[in-house]
Amino acid sequence: MAEGSDDIQALIALMGRLPGLGPRSARRIVLHLIRKRQGQMAQLSALLDSVASNSRECLTCGNITDRDDCAICTDPARATGEICVVQDVADLWALERGHAFKGRYHVLGGTLSALDEIGPEDLGIPSLIDRIARDRISEVILALNATVDGQTTAHYIADALEGTGVTVTGLAQGVPIGGELDYLDDGTITAALRARRRL
Amino acid sequence: MAEGSDDIQALIALMGRLPGLGPRSARRIVLHLIRKRQGQMAQLSALLDSVASNSRECLTCGNITDRDDCAICTDPARATGEICVVQDVADLWALERGHAFKGRYHVLGGTLSALDEIGPEDLGIPSLIDRIARDRISEVILALNATVDGQTTAHYIADALEGTGVTVTGLAQGVPIGGELDYLDDGTITAALRARRRL
């Protein structure tokens, strides 16, 4: 047994299965933690335990929270008339870091996919449509990935909301800030050119 | 608060300070764990807690273990006459994965460094010399990094053992297995040429 004890080996194996980590980086992290076993390692264990027991999905929007309704859904300062639809909680966090959107969210938890047999019911699209009908929503922003599945899902939701009077919008497509044309794919350049605007 | 709860933010911050991780990879790992909070996350917390409370340094060699003396030091099948001196526990693990060495180890926990004021006492070099005198050691293999500090430390130990009758060896230097000459640094090629051997 090379790595100290059975628990250490199990810990390295478990760490090595986390996204972005492998056996080598997991060993490095575990050794680092063992060196700091009174401080960082005990703290990490306690936090993981607390987050594992207290985290749940917000009943309204699907965001990760430690209450029944998340901090965004219960914030009276945020506009109730705008819902931003995202694929994952990671996308919600990314938008929140931008501090640009001041409405509410709706997390789908995935995209429609014929191949993986994921239909509208699996994504909470019916609950989104219910919510829009109930809460007097004026605008739905479909902030979905610019991938085939993301855009298929956006089109499906836009179709489902047709005739309800709700404004449905999507994120602008174009050159990313700081992007160099030379390094961009042809699709992005074409989309940016089509959507050109007057300066 | 973008990321769910205070605990989630603290967990991301703590994870992001681990070697090789940053805020982005930490967020990705934490979200992955929250999705698997009943299984992987609870398991990880329990293992971290167990390793943090049970790990300690082997009293003889400095290896990480969950007992007073490590599995290597107490293994009767391993030669007692050979000590392999390594800088860190990570190096011991790397050698053990090679399955080539069947003796005992001695972990220094660093290298001599005038700049960082690390002297022989800080590295357990006196305890290594005591151990060699006490345990009838025939060979000491200095498996230290091929860096300036590593080689300085190796020379210091070799000098300290002069006249004791112990054979002191070092790892061979040369072309790594699978290495292409074109991509090797000049120092390695020169060392490999100097240490050339008859085929």
Automatic annotation (TrEMBL), chains A, B:
<keyword id="KW-0227">DNA damage</keyword>
<dbReference type="GO" id="GO:0008270">
    <property type="term" value="F:zinc ion binding"/>
</dbReference>
<dbReference type="InterPro" id="IPR034137">
    <property type="entry name" value="TOPRIM_RecR"/>
</dbReference>
<dbReference type="GO" id="GO:0006281">
    <property type="term" value="P:DNA repair"/>
</dbReference>
<feature type="zinc finger region" description="C4-type">
    <location>
        <begin position="58"/>
        <end position="73"/>
    </location>
</feature>
<dbReference type="GO" id="GO:0006310">
    <property type="term" value="P:DNA recombination"/>
</dbReference>
<keyword id="KW-0863">Zinc-finger</keyword>
<keyword id="KW-0862">Zinc</keyword>
<feature type="domain" description="Toprim">
    <location>
        <begin position="81"/>
        <end position="176"/>
    </location>
</feature>
<dbReference type="Pfam" id="PF21176">
    <property type="entry name" value="RecR_HhH"/>
</dbReference>
<dbReference type="Pfam" id="PF13662">
    <property type="entry name" value="Toprim_4"/>
</dbReference>
<dbReference type="InterPro" id="IPR006171">
    <property type="entry name" value="TOPRIM_dom"/>
</dbReference>
<comment type="function">
    <text>May play a role in DNA repair. It seems to be involved in an RecBC-independent recombinational process of DNA repair. It may act with RecF and RecO.</text>
</comment>
<protein>
    <recommendedName>
        <fullName>Recombination protein RecR</fullName>
    </recommendedName>
</protein>
<keyword id="KW-0233">DNA recombination</keyword>
<keyword id="KW-0479">Metal-binding</keyword>
<comment type="similarity">
    <text>Belongs to the RecR family.</text>
</comment>
<dbReference type="InterPro" id="IPR000093">
    <property type="entry name" value="DNA_Rcmb_RecR"/>
</dbReference>
<dbReference type="InterPro" id="IPR023627">
    <property type="entry name" value="Rcmb_RecR"/>
</dbReference>
<keyword id="KW-0234">DNA repair</keyword>
<dbReference type="Pfam" id="PF21175">
    <property type="entry name" value="RecR_C"/>
</dbReference>
<dbReference type="GO" id="GO:0003677">
    <property type="term" value="F:DNA binding"/>
</dbReference>
